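Weekly puzzle thread! Below is a chain. First person to post its structure in token form gets bragging rights.
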Amino acid sequence: MPSTRDIRRRIKSVKNTRQITKAMELVAASKMKKAQQAALAGRPYAELMARMLAALADRVEESQHEFLVKREVKTRGIILITSDKGLCGPLNSNLFKLVTEIKTPAKYAVIGRKGTQFIARTHRALLADFPANDRTTFADIKVVAEFMVQQYHKGVVDTVEIIWPRFRNTLVQVPTVMSLLPLTDVKAAIAELHAATGTVPVKETPAESQMLFEPDAKVVLESLLPLYLNRQVYHQALEAKASEHSSRMVAMKTAKDNATKLLGDLTLEYNKARQAGITQEILEIAAAQFSAA
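Winning reply:
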């Protein structure tokens, strides 16, 4: 049995760990709430964009825009969104499982240090890496989306896809793959947009559906599609940040609970060791008195 001094040291160490994990849990909970609010705030904008794309879908042909033309896929282009830091449970490892399942040639643009380390460690093609800041701004994410669109224009990649942890609730974050380019089926992309944002398609009246586009639908589509792509990547980045903070909060709460349980076990062990020591001392005193008598 370990000595009482060793047990006291372990108790002190576990108390410190519990204090740290509790603080990290509270910080993650605060950040998660802000990230959730940011993701929800963009849903009306995404809903309006979906309505605009729906109105354009029947007025343009696939050949009128490069983003709508399907081509032979030789190399996939994938945006991987992970976290910069660890201690967020299985969040990143679940994303990496999706990446390892990709057997076709692919090149990656990674948001987050953990993803960059994984791509480098597994010797996959890395086009660029970007930091995953706690304060996710549209300007930062726009750089990533425009970079991948540029690679698509140049023919470096033949698709643009995104892998991110979809936020459902505090306990559930689902690793998801979604195709962004080419938009061969605009209506399917709209349905996927509604699914990703959790919005419900609005039924328009005949008067509302008769939208007029100036100068014409093709010009509007050319301006709307890049904005749609930027907005999609931004929304998934916000979801990924909410998922990261949620997963970290749950992981830190689990660590805190485990530390509390271990602290109880160590306290019980310490009391037993202390009681055994006291009993041994009493027996030695009694034996010495008996011998003296």
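Puzzle host: Confirmed. Bonus trivia for everyone else. The chain has a mean pLDDT of 82.
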